[in-house]
Please model this.
Amino acid sequence: MKRSYGIDLIRTLSILIVILRHYEVLITGFNYGVYAIEFLFVISGFLIGQILIKEFYHTHQITTNSVKHFMMRRWFRILPLYYLAILLKFIFYPEVGKNIIFYLFFLQNNFYGISFFPETWSLVIDEWFYLGTPIMLYLFMKFINSKPFHVLLFLIATIVVINALRCFWVYKTNIIWDGINGNIVLHQDTLLIGVVVAFIKRHYQHLFQRMNSKVWFYSGLAAFIVYIFSIRSVRYPEDMVNHYFITRTFSFTICSVIIACMLPYLENSIQPIKFKPLNFLNTGVIVGSKISYALYLFHSMSLALSVYFFDTLLNVEWIKVIGFLFSIVISYLLYQYVEKKFLIIRDKYYPERTH
Model:
């Protein structure tokens, strides 16, 4: 898939916001990192949705081979670095014991807890999306209807059902916001909204092109800023997010729909900086996007190592700087010598569909 500078920019900015939050630099109080993750979820759904749609429509037959092909490409992308990170964590923090099994099968959110490796909560949501969505679409398109309009209605109906289930679960159990945010089932609508935009891009190009406008983008951006400040008023300085029904139910979908409105313009109309002295920023955006997955998995470990080696030599702010720089270096090396190698193997045995 052709790279998009706008998508790369959002990925890079989002992972930086997450790292700054985890390092407790600049961002204090209200957790903007959560909403950076929401951006990544919708973008993931959008990009993966395009791949899925290409898989299912590249021939006139809906087959299990398309599901297998998609999953193998995803697993080559996700699992090598993830299991490497889990192994390193287990070496240094073996106290998790046999409960490591929950992490190996992406079940920690719902069945054990994320204290062993907190960053993985969002990867769990992603991984179950990668597993469940192709199977769900395959069953619907194979046995019910594969016409684009009906598939689009099915996707929208699934989002509505997830919202209904979320409302029911909050009403029935009074579960806290964190319990919804990390729930494998009840947070899938965020990614599915990205799939809906991908579906519109492929089958309703006139609508997608209409969305690819400054009006849609800046309206979405303004709505997102209003949304963030509205949530901030609920969560900071006193966190009252669990006091309101809407913050634990419809707020997830509202946020995702707002982000989705900005995707066409982000993908197609945000261009690199043309001022030559600032070309290094363009390079940083592209490299940041490429190493974002490694950064997400390893930035906390990089900080922990920096604390271990420099705790008695430097103050905490300098340790954070070293940890950040170290995380960049280690993530780049992991991308070059682990992630990229597996991607080459993947493309050899499971090449990307070209139409």
The chain has a mean pLDDT of 92.
